[in-house]
Amino acid sequence: MRIPPSTATWRMVPSWEWHRVGADRSRAAAILRACSYAPRLEEAAAMELPEAMARLQLIPGIGPWTAAETLQRTLGAPDALTLGDLHLPVQIGYALTGARGGTDEQMLQLLEPYAGQRHRADPAHPARRPAAQPAGPPGPAQPHRPSVTRPCGAEACRAGVRRCRASRRSRRRGTR
Predict the structure, then answer these.
(1) Euclidean distance between CA atoms 43 and 37, whole angstroms
(2) Which residues, 6+ apart, have CB-to-CB distance to 92 below 8 Å?
């Protein structure tokens, strides 16, 4: 179980740490803005889904995609469907109709029968992904150094006992 950091901890993260984890300036600013509204965002846990989505989207930098993903993970909202995603409409359209391509509007029409549980009907939902297969027994031990075949092909040269002239020449030219 993981405990999320407090808002004070988020505010103390230096700019280079945001950069190291791949968060650009606008994403870091959105997170820090959300920290300043943390008490008001906590109230969203007791709200209905549309009101909670609207509350999150009041913060600049948080749109429908981020709001839906946040509510899915924090509140387990079963009907918080991610709109504006590049791949999700295509995946749902293919899973439910077999047709390639798809838009948000088509995805909403296809998921209409699942109203109230649309996020759970999503084929990309983690609970619907196939379980990872065991890797099996380990293979034979691999040498820690790759074997290098020398140009001359001499047994002593291949064994690394000594280098013949052809090997030394090819090494100087960088043709090995």
Answers:
(1) 10
(2) 102, 107, 110, 111, 122, 123, 124
In this predicted model, what pLDDT tens digit does every residue of 9-36 receive, in sequence order? Answer: 999 999 889 989 888 999 999 999 999 9
- What's the confidence (pLDDT) of residue 162? 55
Highest mean pLDDT among 34-48, 89-103, 160-174: 34-48
Question: To which residue do tokens 């179980």 refer?
Answer: 1
| Residue 106 contacts residue 89 (beta carbons within 8 Å) | yes
Q: What is the pTM of this model?
A: 0.60
Q: Which two tokens stand for residue 73?
A: 């993970």
| 3-class secondary structure per residue, the chain | CCCCCCHHHHHCCCHHHHHHCCCCHHHHHHHHHHHHCHHHHHHHHHCCHHHHHHHHHCCCCCCHHHHHHHHHHHCCCCCCCCCCCCCHHHHHHHHHHCCCCCCHHHHHHHCHHHCCCHHHHCCCCHHHCCCCCCCCCCCCCCCCCCCCCCCCCCHHHHCCCCCCHHHHHHHHHCCC
